[in-house]
Structure formats: C-alpha cells, structure tokens
Amino acid sequence: MQKCFAIVASCCCLLLLCEAALKLPDFVKKCSAKDPNFDDCVFEHAKETIPHMIDGLKKYRIPVLDPIHVKEMRANVGGLDMHGWDLVGTGLRNVQLKNIKIDLKKKEITVEVLVPKAHFQGKYEVNGKIMSLPITGKGDFEATFDDLYAKYVTTYELQKMDDEEVYLVPTIYNVIFETKSANVRMDNLFNGNKLLGDNMNKFLNENWQDVMKEAGQSTYNALGLVIHNIFSGTTLTVAYKDVFDDVEV
Questions:
Q1: Which residues form the signal peptide (predicted)?
Q2: What is the CATH number of the domain that holds 196?
C-alpha cells in the first residue's frame, strides 16, 4: 500500500509540472558529483539551506514548515482506524540535520534529522482496539514528542519532461520515527465519558512505548507520505543538471 501511495503521489506531482524550470535559490550552494568529499559537501550545504526553508518557499512548492499544516491523515493498523484533520505541527524551526547521503549510482537519498521538541494538535477520530483495549472517540487532540528522530529514505528516477529537461523524481520511500518520550491528550473519548477518557489517556501515556510499537508505524507511514509529497513537488521545480555540478543526464 505504501508503494502504491508513493507511485500515485509521484504521478500527481508530474501533472503539476507545467511551468519553466527554476534555478536553485542563491543561498543553495551546489556540490560537484566529482568531488571526493561529495557527501561532506552535501551535508554542510544542506545544513546552511534548512533555515531558509522553514518559512516556506512557494516558488519551489515548499510550504511553511513551522508551523506546518496538514489537511488530513489516515492510518489503519489491525482493528484500529485513525483519522486526523486540520493538523498543526510546530518544532521544525529547531530541527537538527544529523545525516544526508545522496547515492548517485544507486539513485537513493537518505536524510536523518532530530527535532528536540515537536508538538502536534488538531482534530481526530479513532475507533477500534489498542493493546487489546477498546478505544473510540472524536474531538480535539494534542501530542508532544521529545527528541523526535526521523529517517527518510527514497529511491528516485531521472525523467525527461515536456520541457525537455531531466528532473529527479522520487519514487519508493520509507520513513522511520523514534522518540525519547511522548505525551498525548485526546478529548471526548468514549462519547465524553470523563472517567473512561482520563483513564485511557493515562494508560496511553504510561505505556507510550508499547503503544508506539503497536500503532506507530501506520501513523509514521501517513506522516511519511506528507514528507514525500512535499519533496516530490520540490524536486520537479529545478532541472537535475542545475542541482549538482558534473552530473551525467
């Protein structure tokens, strides 16, 4: 299913490519594919670039990243259905780039980051079982994660578009999230039953590691799709020959 989402997302992004290719922003420094220290060059220049991206770059299809607004997310694992909408996330302004690797031969990109404190809030609806306990509810929620680590890996293809330029097109991706601690609050659980709702919130927070093991990956996949869609749209604004020096197209 994740592969299908990635393919559909990439196809949608291709349909958006209807304007002339842009050049890289002045604050982005290119690295040469022939540089023996290519990985170090990419890492250092990526660190310098991130602060310029946080408030968004509309021309390059990068939305505001802090706060980041997500219209909708859906996740399903076993007998648990989760739906979130009107989501707002903060904390990316303080993101720390831990690693970035672009393998030009394998056509694979790996990015690892750490967000010291990430906070999300919005609307939710949940129905099913978590750790064998029934859970149902619809209302407001908020969640905070300390030292949220994320690893995003995507393969890519080089495709020639209608403008005769070749672009980097992300294809199949995978995302991993880990966190030092998590705290969640879901309002209006069990049709507003305060006793049941308070006990469920307490249970979720006291057992957050087990909860994340059981239900986390499905949620990560949904969040990963948001990341992948943003990246896929961005790479289609600048021709591949203008992303790196000394590349074969």
A1: 1-20
A2: 3.15.10.30
Residue 195 belongs to domain spanning: 2-26+52-242
How many domains does the structure of the chain reveal?
A: 1
| Cα–Cα dist 185/114, whole Å | 23
Say whether pLDDT at 12 is over 70.
Answer: no
pLDDT tens digits along 32-49: 999 999 999 999 999 999
Neighbouring residues of 210: CB distance < 8 A, sequence distance ≥ 6: 131
Q: Who contacts 48 (Cβ-Cβ below 8 Å, separation ≥6)?
A: 27, 29
Average pLDDT, the chain: 90
- Residue 25 in contact with residue 59, Cβ under 8 Å? no
pLDDT in tens, 79-123: 899 999 999 999 999 999 999 999 999 999 999 999 999 999 999
Tell whether 36 is covered by a domain: no
Q: 227: how many CB neighbours lie within 10 A of its CB?
A: 16
Residue 134 covered by a domain: yes
pTM: 0.87
- How many C-beta atoms surround the C-beta of residue 123 within 10 A? 15
Q: Which helix (H) or strand (E) holds 52?
A: helix 38-53
